[in-house]
Amino acid sequence: MPPRRSGSRLRLPSSPNGGAAPGAAPPFLLRLGLTIAALCAIDALALALAFSLAADGLLVPAALLLVVTTAVNWIFVSARAYPVRWLAPGLLLTLLLVVYPLVYTVYLSFTNYSDGHLLTKEQVVAQMERQRFAAESAADYAWRVYRSPDGSFTLWLTDAVGKSFLASGEMGLQAIAADDPRLGPVDPEDGLPRTIGESAKLSRLEAVRHLSELQHLSITAGDDTIRITSLDSAARERQKYTYDPIRDLLTDNETGTAYRPVEGTFTAADGATLSPGFAAVVGPRNFGRAFTDPQIRGPFLGVFAWTFAFAGLSVLLVFTVGLGLALVLNERRLPLRGIFRSLIIVPYAIPGFISALVWVGLLNPFYGPINLGLESLFGFSPPWFSDGTLAKVAILLVNTWLGYPYMLLVSLGALQSIPDELYEAAKIDGASKRQQFRFITLPLLLVSVAPLLIGAFAFNFNNFAVIDLVTEGGPPTPGTATPAGQTDILISYTYRLAFAGGRGSDYAFSAAVSILIFFIIAAITAFNFRFTRSLERVSENV
C-alpha cells in the first residue's frame, strides 16, 4: 500500500492497533542489537589476535590492529560516521590486501630476511643459550635410574674414580654417604641399593623404555648441567653462550670469544660468525646487489634483458600473426569466411594453462608429435627444453599461440571501422596495396590498437604462468649463485628466489626485485597514458 500524503506531511501506513505488531521489537532496536553482537565478535577476535602478536614481540602490528578495531567500532556506533559505514568494508579490504602487502614488501626489501636470517634476535639468543658443551675437566658418569610412585626419576651416578652421587631435578647433585638412611637393601648383582626412599631401581630394559623422558632431564650442578647422553653414560655440560643485553654481547663460554650483532649476524672481532642469524634492517643494499655483486649481476642482468626481449617479441609476434589473419578474414571474397573465423579463435576458448601443457607434450623431445615429425622428415629432433635458445623459441611459440586470437579479434574490429572511402580515394590516386596498408590501414589501426599493445607488453612483462608451465624457467644457467634459469623473466626469477624449495629463499632480495618490477610497470603505464593521449589527438585530426 503506497504512503498517503496529507498536505505537506507524509503519513506512513500503520498496523491496525496504531503501532508495531504485538511482541515485535522495533526495527532499529533489532539492528542495534545485531550491530553490537557483530562488533563484540570482531572485538573479541581482534583482542585475541593482538594479544598473540604482542606475545610474539610484534608490538607494532598489534597496536595497528587495535587502532583499526577502534576505528571500526567508532564508525558503526557513531551517528556522525554513518556515511563511512558503506566505505568501511572496502577500505578494510584495501588495507588488508593491498596496502599491508605493499608496505611489508617495501620493509622486507630493506632487511636481510632470507635463509639463515628468518628468526628474530630474541629467538636466536634463546637458541644459542640452550647450547651446551663438555669442558675438558668435566666428568662423565655411569648411571642407573630409580623411579618413584609419582613418576619422578632419581639418578645414581658413578664417576671414573668410583665415587657415587644422587641426582634429580629437585635435589641437584649430592654425594652419597654410606650411612644414608634413604638407601635400601643392596642388590648383590650390581652392589647398588634396590630402593632409594620410595623410588625403586629400574632394570636396564625398563630404563630403555623411559629413555626419551630421561634424556630430557636437566640436572643443575653449580654452573654445570648433567644430561644423559647414552645408555651407559651421563655428561656434565656447561652453557656454551651467554648473552649480555646491556652490552648487546654474546659470549662463548668455551673459548671466551665475544660476538656482536652486525647486520643480523653475531660476529667476532676476527670476522667469525655464528649461525643462524636474525632478521634485521640493512638498508638499501638489496637493491645494489643486483648490479654490484658479481655472482648476482650476471644472472640478474641476463634475466632483466630476456624479460624485455620476451615481452617485446611476444607483442610483436602476436600482433603480426593476429593482424595478418585479420587482413585475410577481412577479405569479403574469402570463401567459408565464417567457418574460418570460428576455427581460428579456438585457442582463445581453451584455458591457457591447458593449452600450455598440451604444447609441452607436443614439444617433448622423445615422443612429442612435432619432434617425431621433424626427425622423420629431416633427421633432427630439437632439444626444446635443454637448450637455452630453443627453450626461448618454444616459449615465444606457445605465447604466440595463446595470444594471437585476442589480437585477431581486436584488429578485425579496427579494420572494419576504417571507412571504405579512404581506400577508394587511394585507388584513384594510384596507391598500391602495400601503400594503402602503410599509409592508411596501419596508422588508423594503431590509433585503436597501440594502447592495447602497450598493455600487452606490460602483461607479458609479468607473464609468470607461461614461463612456469612450459619450461619452469629452465634450462638452468650454469655457474650461477642464484636460481636463475635461461628462460626466467623477472617475476619467475623473483618467485624462485623467494619460494622455490631447495633452490632459493632470499625473501629480502626478491622483495627488492619486486619493487624494481613495480617501478618498471609504473613507467610503462605512465608511457601508455601519455601515448594514448597522443593517439587521441591524432584520431581527432584524421
What is this structure, in a nutshell?
Among the domains are: 132-239, D-maltodextrin-binding protein, MBP (Periplasmic binding protein-like II, Beta Barrel); 291-541, MetI-like (MetI-like fold), CATH 1.10.3720.10. Helices cover 53% and strands 12% of the residues. The protein has 18 helices and 16 strands.
Write a structural description.
The protein is an alpha+beta fold. Among the domains are: 132-239, Periplasmic binding protein-like II, CATH 2.40.430; 291-541, MetI-like (MetI-like fold, Orthogonal Bundle), CATH 1.10.3720. The chain is built from 18 helices and 16 strands. A hairpin with a 4-residue loop joins strand 13 (241-244) and strand 14 (249-252). The longest helix is centred in the middle third of the chain and has 36 residues, at 294-329.
Defining key terms:
single chain, 542 residues, alpha+beta, Periplasmic binding protein-like II, MetI-like fold, 10-stranded antiparallel β-sheet, 4-stranded antiparallel β-sheet, 18 helices, 16 strands, disordered N terminus
Could you please say which CATH topology of the domain at 291-541 applies here? MetI-like fold
Amount of beta strand: 5-15%
Q: Could you tell me the mean pLDDT? A: 84
List low-pLDDT spans: 1-21
Could you give the topology of this structure?
Elements: E1 4-6, E2 9-11, H1 27-55, H2 59-77, H3 88-109, H4 121-129, E3 132-133, E4 140-147, E5 153-158, E6 164-168, E7 172-175, E8 195-196, E9 199-201, H5 204-209, H6 211-215, E10 219-221, E11 224-228, E12 233-239, E13 241-244, E14 249-252, E15 258-262, E16 265-267, H7 285-292, H8 294-329, H9 337-344, H10 346-349, H11 352-362, H12 369-378, H13 388-416, H14 420-428, H15 433-461, H16 464-470, H17 490-498, H18 507-541
Antiparallel strand pairs: 1-2, 3-12, 4-5, 4-9, 4-12, 5-6, 6-7, 8-9, 10-11, 11-12, 13-14, 14-15, 15-16
Helix pairs in contact: 1-2, 3-18, 7-8, 7-18, 8-13, 8-15, 11-16, 13-15, 15-18, 17-18
